[in-house]
Amino acid sequence: MRKQTIRDIDWAGKRALVRVDFNVPQDESGAITDDTRIQAALPTLHYLLDNGAALVLMSHLGRPKGGADPKYSLRPIAEHLALLLGRPVQFVGETVGSEAENAAQALQPGDVLVIENTRFDPRETKNDPAMSAQLAKLGDLFVNDAFGSAHRAHASTTGVADYLPGVAGFLMQKELDYLGDALEDPQRPFVAILGGAKVSDKIPVIEALLEKVDAILIGGGMANTFLAAQGYATGKSLVEKEALDTARSLLEKGEGCIHLPVDLVVADAFAADAVREVVAVDAIPEGWMALDIGPASIAHFANRLAGAKTVVWNGPMGVFEMPAFATGTVAIAEILAGLSNATTVIGGGDSAAAVRQAGLDGKISHVSTGGGASLEFLEGKVLPGVAALKDR
User: Fold this and answer.
1) In a shared domain, residues 36 and 134
2) Sign (positive/negative) of CA torsion 257, 263, 266, 271?
3) In which domain, by residue range, is 29 found?
4) Active-site residue, selected from the candidate residues 159, 349, 370, 385
5) Do residues 92 and 218 both lie within one domain?
6) CA torsion angle for 381, 386, 389, 392 (degrees, to 10)?
7) Any catalytic annotation for residue 349?
């Protein structure tokens, strides 16, 4: 990795202003339902504390509209973090201002402070320099460990690095190492698996990957658009008509490289209890819709993955939230978990959720914490939150 990390700094007596990604799901009562992202930040936080730093932690949570919203307060996150760290965690109910500055100034080595949701201040998403300068008063050095927000140029992810030296935390380093190595120097064969609903979301990724991979396997709703572009009748399946020409052109460009499903699980309605059957791609009944890849497609994809040495996967193979249509996604996760000699990288989002749901995340080389960020990385884009950090 070409960026400085927390290992390059002497932290004794320093205040580390750390951008974490604590944007975690909560239920109606505010209880955290999945603390994976908080757990992922712990190695960085422990290292900084063990090396004499005090911590000021900042994160966004949800999409609050028009300022502060108690539903999206980081207070319950701070309370949960205290349990995970096994030490007190202070919370201050503002993001910037005198209260936050006084609390940060009073910190001693080993102390931890969480400031309020960065998106409660409308200047955050505008990358306002005045807010960045105020945030910078809270620390001596800036640590970005929020890969999931690295594709956004916000005050807390990029702007603050104009006022404080910025280095990468361990999670950021791990993300860049795995995704960077996969793209820059992959062991071959290199296979990409792409799914999800829309082709339009993945066009730049497919174009970028066609120049790098040995095979692209396409499933999920986006496969329907490619099948329609080949002239197949797709019933009531999700098809992006405006993307048909693009799909045709990608198929031409990727001839021999792009692999589509050969059979599908179709249903008579978009419902968990719908009547369903497996059909070949040229036999979708009128009025039915494709909601998963079929067993022959799983076998076809398994053959393409058999000797792979590097695999990147982004997007589910079907509507995996409904158990009846999760078979293809779970099967792909199981195939990757069994590739003991390959580097396997899951690009965040729904595919990461599916791997965790199947209990297989421990058998994957790296499960990314950033869906949008990993997609943009795969496109070859420079992520603003990474660009802002100090080079080695």
Assistant:
1) yes
2) negative
3) 6-173
4) 349
5) no
6) -70
7) yes
Report the distance separating Cα 281 and Cα 270, nearest Å.
18
Any domain includes 388: no
Q: Do 219 and 240 fall within a single domain?
A: yes
167 & 56 share domain: yes
Is there a single domain that holds both residue 11 and residue 143?
yes
Q: Is 119 an annotated catalytic residue?
A: no
CA distance 199 to 366: 25
CA distances 74 to 2, 91, 107, 339, Å, are 32, 8, 19, 39
Residues 90 and 221 in one domain: no
Q: What is the DSSP string of 229-246?
A: HTT---TT----GGGHHH
Q: How many domains does the chain have?
A: 2
- Domain harbouring 292, CATH code: 3.40.50.1260
pLDDT band of 109, cuts 50, 70, 90: very high
Query: CB under 8 Å to 36, separation ≥6 — which residues?
Result: 24, 356, 369
Residue 335 shares a structural domain with residue 212: yes
- Global confidence as pTM: 0.89
pLDDT of res. 347 = 86
Contact 122/67 with Cβ under 8 angstroms? yes
Per-residue pLDDT, averaged over 276-305, amounts to 97
Catalytic residue among 198, 236, 356, 390: 198
Average pLDDT, the chain: 94
In a domain, 134, yes or no: yes
The single residue of 3, 37, 174, 202 carrying the catalytic annotation is 37
Residue 110 belongs to some domain of the structure? yes
Give the ranges where 230-348 is alpha helix by DSSP (H). 244-253, 295-305, 327-337
Select from 206, 203, 193 the least CA-distant residue to 301. 193
pLDDT for the residue numbered 338: 95
pLDDT band at 200 (very low <50, low <70, confident <90, very high): confident
86 burial (CB, 10 Å; 0-12 / 13-18 / 19+) is exposed
Helices (H), ranges, the chain: 36-50, 75-85, 98-105, 129-136, 170-184, 203-210, 221-229, 244-253, 295-305, 327-337, 349-357, 371-378, 384-387
Q: 366 pLDDT exceeds 70?
A: yes
pLDDT number for residue 1: 62
